[in-house]
Amino acid sequence: MPRSDADVLLGQLALRRGFVTSDQLEECLDLQEQVYDLGLTENLGSILVKRGLVTAPQRDALLRLQDRVLGRREQALYGRLAVSNGFVAPEQLTEALRQQRGADRGRRIGSILLRRGFLSERQHHAILAAQGRIRETLTASAPADDEPDLTGRRIGPFRLLERIARGGMGTVYRSRQVSLDRLVAVKTLTPARARDREFYDRFLQEASTVARLVHPSIVQMVDAGTFRGTPYLVLEWVEGRSLGEELAEAGGPLPADRALEVAITVAEALEAAHREGVIHRDVKPDNILLPETGGAKVTDFGLAKVVNAPAHITDHGEIVGSPFTMSPEQAAGLDVDARADVYSLGATLFQMLTGTRLYSGPSPVAVIARVLSDPLPDPLERRSDLPAALAPILRRLCAKDREERPRSCAEVAELLRPFAKASREAPDARCPACGRGLPRPTRDACGSCGYEFASGERIPRAMPLAGILGLVRRRARARGRRGP
Q: Which of 51, 233, 412, 440 has the fewest CB atoms within 10 Å, i.e. the most exposed one?
């Protein structure tokens, strides 16, 4: 179940006030998911009261505090949007904030900016509209509740074998094309989205967009149509997993040569799309597939901007994409070009090389606010063994000002190739304890299992659950190769 910003914040506040322990909060959140799986909904505050962890007055006090914190976040986002859109200068915003803490305590920041003449009514309404689009985008990214599971059914000549992904636009199934006895991926649009003209048109646009993109590193279109009122797309089946799954299993950074080769391949695919007038706008690890045969493939052009498309499909000012890899101009609701994909690819490469996202936060809105205003983190602080010359290139790819970024993905590929070549030519290094590939040059200890190379001892280390599961799977495979 997608957890709301409000429930996440309420849990954090209850934890900070000492009303619940971490284990108790986790139990309540698990219970909330179980209730959701039964087709019901219940907010976290109600569950805390029913479990006897807080009283009704304590819950009400937490809810009032929650409202104040959410209000402050909305105000902070308003200010960042005002500056990033060029409506007010940073000094003017600082002056208004100082006034809000003093004589105008309790007054909204937009009202102060208007009263001081720093902002026009038209600009004020544009910022409010942008805030609304952010909320709508984050809501639309959640799976739709009315989406039935079609596993086992047939859509025309395609039998749906297994539901493998579910999102705000629809569901993807591993399927079999009966006539040719081959596996394909079938993507269906939810009933509610099919009734919405904007989503229906966007779905059709994805079909026509992918059909015109012929490239070995772009997932290819097989068919499209409507079956008994259900619009569907049929895409080639890629045996493998997504980059997001590989990062989750690794629980840390990928080997540099692996990360760079994936980034170069994706850059070449995006360049091919850009030449056709298509801006992806949602480049992220989950939309990069890694075939078992090697290489990488870009998928999911559902949010793409197509040059000369009808205005209601790719309106100027709409905010789409993943907050974690979204460019600042996307977050601000500005028009985008190929350099938005350059930024998203840079953010994805940053995550592959460092094992951490470029920006993170307790909620999508908090992440967007950081994308707009926080300085770029230094990749060398998060992974000290990266080549020093690679850090400024990462900073260029993720520059807040798009004028400072490479102008094309072809340029990105050329910038990264020398580093990929140097990394490939470095001797391979693997941890003697767990067998995982190590970043080059080798660290003092394995980032997966904590094995210290000098002493031969394991250093206790807090591993992400996905990293632990990956380690268990690798050891099981190794035992299978050695025999009983």
A: 51
Q: What is the pLDDT along the chain (484 residues), one digit of tens a residue?
A: 455 667 777 888 888 888 888 888 888 888 887 776 665 667 888 889 988 898 988 888 888 887 777 677 777 778 878 887 788 888 888 888 888 877 777 678 888 888 888 888 888 877 877 776 666 555 555 555 556 778 888 888 999 999 888 766 678 999 999 989 999 999 988 777 777 777 777 787 778 888 888 999 999 988 888 887 788 999 999 999 999 999 988 888 999 999 999 999 999 999 999 999 999 999 999 999 999 889 999 998 877 887 665 544 444 445 667 889 999 998 888 889 999 999 999 999 999 999 999 998 877 777 888 888 889 999 999 998 888 899 999 999 999 999 999 999 999 999 999 988 776 655 555 565 666 655 543 445 565 566 554 454 554 444 444 554 555 555 555 555 444 4
CA 250 to chain centre: 17
State how far the Cα of 186 lies from the Cα of 145, in Å rounded to an integer.
19
- Report the C-alpha gap between 124 and 301 in whole angstroms: 32
The domain locations on the chain are 5-140, 154-236, 240-425, 432-484
**CATH code for residues 240-425:** 1.10.510.10
Q: Quick one: CATH architecture of 154-236?
A: 2-Layer Sandwich (3.30)
List of residues 6+ apart from 215 with CB closer than 8 A: 268, 269, 272, 273
| β partners of residue 160 | 175
Q: How far apart are the first and last CA of the chain?
A: 41
CA distance 443 to 441: 7
Residues 263 and 271 sit within 8 Å (Cβ to Cβ): no
Quote the CA–CA distance of 206 and 115 in Å, as a whole number.
Answer: 45
Show contacts of 180-184: CB within 8 Å, 24+ apart. Answer: 182/237, 183/237, 183/239, 184/158, 184/222, 184/234, 184/235, 184/236, 184/237
CA distances from 117 to 25, 76, 114 (A): 46, 19, 5
Whole-angstrom Cα distance, residue 410 to residue 7?
Answer: 43
Smallest CA-to-CA distance from 251 within 465, 428, 17 is with 465
Give backbone dihedrals phi and psi of 361, rounded to 5 degrees, phi first: -175, 170
Q: What is the DSSP code string of 98-111? A: HHHHTTTTTS-HHH
Active site residue 444: no
Q: What is the pTM of this model?
A: 0.65
Choose, from 7, 257, 282, 300, the residue flagged as catalytic: 282
